[in-house]
């Protein structure tokens, strides 16, 4: 009988049951399940450690500001910010027309500025915020720069290279993939682009 009762638990569940309840204090912010007793809740795995850190809307707000500045220069309104800890290392917007440079996307502008400022071709402790899903070129540059986390705004099903099209970070030839968090201030980002292209058409 003892053997039968033990067999109801998977090994990881048993491991969890052996752990003292006070070791699960970090899970206290998990939303309670209806009808669940405290003792049940304490036995659930601590999901907090697996969940991504909260995105920082303030940095995306700055990326949005860069996108607006780009629009004012008659550039496609996409903005990017590179952050290390709480410090903004670089920020920039699209400059392809201004520079006559098809590679001067906001991400590339920001990566170049950050690398120059830090005196390093790699930015392993840095996170990049950009208002639009990066294209394949920018995804590659993000990978080469060893950016730690990518936060992007609007999805770009037609030109994106992260969750659309080439899905660059999922390819076996990609040697560094950042953690990716999408759909951050996506509505504002998309509105900026829509407004810009509508104005150009009229
Ligand atoms: Zn790009």
UniProtKB/TrEMBL annotation:
<dbReference type="InterPro" id="IPR016193">
    <property type="entry name" value="Cytidine_deaminase-like"/>
</dbReference>
<keyword id="KW-0819">tRNA processing</keyword>
<dbReference type="GO" id="GO:0008270">
    <property type="term" value="F:zinc ion binding"/>
</dbReference>
<dbReference type="GO" id="GO:0052717">
    <property type="term" value="F:tRNA-specific adenosine-34 deaminase activity"/>
</dbReference>
<keyword id="KW-0479">Metal-binding</keyword>
<comment type="function">
    <text>Catalyzes the deamination of adenosine to inosine at the wobble position 34 of tRNA(Arg2).</text>
</comment>
<comment type="subunit">
    <text>Homodimer.</text>
</comment>
<dbReference type="GO" id="GO:0002100">
    <property type="term" value="P:tRNA wobble adenosine to inosine editing"/>
</dbReference>
<dbReference type="Pfam" id="PF00383">
    <property type="entry name" value="dCMP_cyt_deam_1"/>
</dbReference>
<dbReference type="InterPro" id="IPR016192">
    <property type="entry name" value="APOBEC/CMP_deaminase_Zn-bd"/>
</dbReference>
<feature type="domain" description="CMP/dCMP-type deaminase">
    <location>
        <begin position="54"/>
        <end position="163"/>
    </location>
</feature>
<keyword id="KW-0378">Hydrolase</keyword>
<feature type="binding site">
    <location>
        <position position="105"/>
    </location>
    <ligand>
        <name>Zn(2+)</name>
    </ligand>
</feature>
<protein>
    <recommendedName>
        <fullName>tRNA-specific adenosine deaminase</fullName>
        <ecNumber>3.5.4.33</ecNumber>
    </recommendedName>
</protein>
<feature type="region of interest" description="Disordered">
    <location>
        <begin position="1"/>
        <end position="57"/>
    </location>
</feature>
<dbReference type="InterPro" id="IPR028883">
    <property type="entry name" value="tRNA_aden_deaminase"/>
</dbReference>
<keyword id="KW-0862">Zinc</keyword>
<feature type="binding site">
    <location>
        <position position="138"/>
    </location>
    <ligand>
        <name>Zn(2+)</name>
    </ligand>
</feature>
<feature type="active site" description="Proton donor">
    <location>
        <position position="107"/>
    </location>
</feature>
<comment type="similarity">
    <text>Belongs to the cytidine and deoxycytidylate deaminase family. ADAT2 subfamily.</text>
</comment>
<feature type="binding site">
    <location>
        <position position="135"/>
    </location>
    <ligand>
        <name>Zn(2+)</name>
    </ligand>
</feature>
<dbReference type="InterPro" id="IPR002125">
    <property type="entry name" value="CMP_dCMP_dom"/>
</dbReference>
<feature type="compositionally biased region" description="Basic and acidic residues">
    <location>
        <begin position="34"/>
        <end position="50"/>
    </location>
</feature>
């Amino acid at each position: 009988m003892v053997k039968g009762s033990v067999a109801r638990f998977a090994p990881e569940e048993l491991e969890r049951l052996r752990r003292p309840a006070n070791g699960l204090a970090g899970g206290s912010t998990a939303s309670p399940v209806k009808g669940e007793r405290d003792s049940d809740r304490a036995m659930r795995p601590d999901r907090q450690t697996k969940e991504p850190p909260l995105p920082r809307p303030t940095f995306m707000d700055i990326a949005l500001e860069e996108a607006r500045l780009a629009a004012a220069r008659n550039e496609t309104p996409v903005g990017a910010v590179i952050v290390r800890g709480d410090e903004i290392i670089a920020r920039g917007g699209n400059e392809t027309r201004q520079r006559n440079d098809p590679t001067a996307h906001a991400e590339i502008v920001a990566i170049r500025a950050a690398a120059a400022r830090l005196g390093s071709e790699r930015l392993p402790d840095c996170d990049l915020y950009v208002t639009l899903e990066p294209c394949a070129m920018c995804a590659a540059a993000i990978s080469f720069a060893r950016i730690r986390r990518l936060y992007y705004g609007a999805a770009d099903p037609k030109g994106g290279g992260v969750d659309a099209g080439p899905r660059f970070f999922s390819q076996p030839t990609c040697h560094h993939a950042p953690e990716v968090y999408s759909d951050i201030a996506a509505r504002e980002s998309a509105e900026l682009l829509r407004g810009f292209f509508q104005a150009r058409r009229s």
